[in-house]
Amino acid sequence: MGSDTIEPSNDQLKSPSVALTPETESLVQDVGDVEMLVGIPSYNNADTIAHVVRAVSAGLAKYFPGQRAVLVNSDGGSSDGTPDEVSRAVVDFGALLISDQQSRLQKIITPYHGIPGKGSAFRTIFEIARRLNAKACAVVDSDLRSITPEWIELLLRPILDENYDYVAPYYLRHKYDGTITNSIVYPLTRTLYGQRIRQPIGGDFGFSGRLTDHYLDQHVWESDVARFGIDIWMTTEAIASGARVCQSFLGAKIHNPKDPASDLAAMLMQVLGAVFALMEEHHGVWSRVHESMPVKLYGFQYEVGVEPVNVNVERMIASFQQGLADLTPIWEQVLGRETVAELKPLQAVSAADFRIPDDLWVRVIYEAALAYHARLMPREHLLKAITPLYLGRTATFVLETQGLTTVEAEGRIEQLCLAFESRKSYLVERWN
After folding, report:
1. What's the CA gap between 335 and 324, in Å, rounded?
2. Count of other CB atoms within 10 angstroms of residue 418
3. 3-state secondary structure of 251
4. d(CA 65, CA 59)
5. Is 223 in the same domain as 343?
6. Which of 97, 117, 337, 357 is least buried, going by the fewest C-beta atoms within 10 A?
7. 336 & 415 share domain
């Protein structure tokens, strides 16, 4: 861990280079080598992407004047004029008190090919970065309302000046935003790989040219991992490859928050499927990790106002109890009868008394990972069956933290992480 060399995976075939359109090939040749590249994947983001492009342009001009940089918009076939918005977006440098010392930022606007999704967009961005020999790269979401020029410095500077390979974002979020991260992905990733990266599926990252090459050479680009789980794949692959990783404090991430009870089931399946698939891939790494370590955090930390997230606890509990009624045979197959027996008393309790304790929740996730590994049933069925359990655990977190500030609620997440870490030996023994 933490070596300066990124080790290629022995059992991975090199992926072929990505085909670019003739127009994009021509643009890449015209641009030549660059120091930095910022990529923005998009699909029908016309209402927000111009703001993101202006923030990127201002950040590059303000913090990296005179250095060659390019912005790449990798678009999935938008029908709302998104690429036109990218093309038209310009910055009034005088109004921002920036003496523009670089020529107008070069932009490459290109469609991506391959299976639909963010992974294919990233693959095109990585390929262009490789051809331009970019030393430092970043990708940012196209629907960000809170991005500022400072984000660009915070994502690129640790790579250029401090020799890091991967910069994960560190956001302040409402205590009920990011429930998949808080209840599963952060505790599990930290426990498995030993690095406390708080937002492993954040969406906005910095990475080195060396890591770009490593990403492109992995043979996952036609798989569901690349299609749906690209953010957690990037983070995990960086850590598992021995890359130097850090975090940068970006303040608030303002996007359209989702009620955990309403529409996160598909995302849960995609992300958890990717996490479990990565456990298969990197068992040789995580089975040797015995403790987690803090990860360097750059940037000036400050309190921010976060947008409220409305949650429907009753609906989450009802979904869990319906799952208990309908899925008990499947849950017993996945989790074991003892674990399900401990969940059974929750069938009839009111919201006031509803709780899935930390230790029980850790067992649920570890048993699910073991069942996935053992292929006890079709993996899609297994992942679907976890959704009501996740909603029950999320309801528990909401009920336990109703009177707490977001900072105080973070203490509960830390307790959950320690519960995951304390039982890791059980996971390792059973896996083998």
Report:
1. 13
2. 14
3. strand
4. 9
5. no
6. 97
7. yes
Cβ pair 38, 153 in contact under 8 A: no
* Greatest Cα-to-Cα distance within the chain, rounded to the nearest angstrom: 67
Helix axes 379-401 and 358-374, enclosed angle (nearest 10): 170
CATH of the domain at 84: 3.90.550.10
Residues with Cβ within 8 Å of 42's Cβ and at least 6 positions away in sequence, in order, are: 49, 73, 74, 75, 76, 78, 82, 83, 86, 121, 142
Q: Are residues 292 and 321 in the same domain?
A: no
Gap between the Cα atoms of 360 and 339, Å rounded: 7
By the 8 A CB rule, do 354 and 399 touch?
yes
Run of H or E including 332: helix 313-335
- 306: in domain: no
The whole-model pTM stands at: 0.92
For 63-120, the pLDDT digits (tens) are 999 899 999 999 988 899 999 999 999 888 888 888 765 556 899 999 988 777 888 8
Give the whole-angstrom CA distance, residue 20 versus residue 28. Answer: 10
Our count of domains for the chain comes to 2
Residue with tokens 């003739």: 22
Q: Containing domain of residue 37, as a range? A: 22-298
Final residue belonging to a domain, choices 237, 263, 298: 298
- Same domain, yes or no: 68 and 114: yes
